[in-house]
Amino acid sequence: MSQVAKKAGYQETAETQIHRIRITLTSRNVKNLEKVCSNLILGAKDKQLKVKGPVRMPTKRLSITTRMAPNGEGTNTWDRFEMKIHKRLIDLFSPSDIVKQITSIPIEIGVEVEVTIAN
Questions:
Q1: What is the model's pTM?
Q2: Contact, 114 vs 24, CB < 8 A?
C-alpha cells in the first residue's frame, strides 16, 4: 500500500494509514444509482483522493412467469414479470476518517450502500 500512498500524495504515517475502501451501490432504478455514484466521486475528488470506478457489474434479471387465470380455466394466458437489479462498485484510497465525510451525502430513495474497508 505504500506505492498507492505515494501516488495519492499522502505521507503514510502511523496514524494516517491509507486504506482501500470499497463502496458497493445497488438499486432497481438506474437514474438514482448513477446520481449517487456521481455525487460520491465528486466528493472524493474534492478531497484529492484516488478513485477507481464506478465499475458497472452485470445486471441481475429476476423474472417470474405466472398464469393470468385465477382458477386455471379458460385460455392459457401468461403474465411475465421482471425486476432488474443494477450494481456499481467504487474504490477509494484514503484514510478511514475521511470516508465519513464523503459518505455523508444525501442518498436517493431505493439505493443501498455498503462500505467495506480493506488494508
A1: 0.76
A2: yes
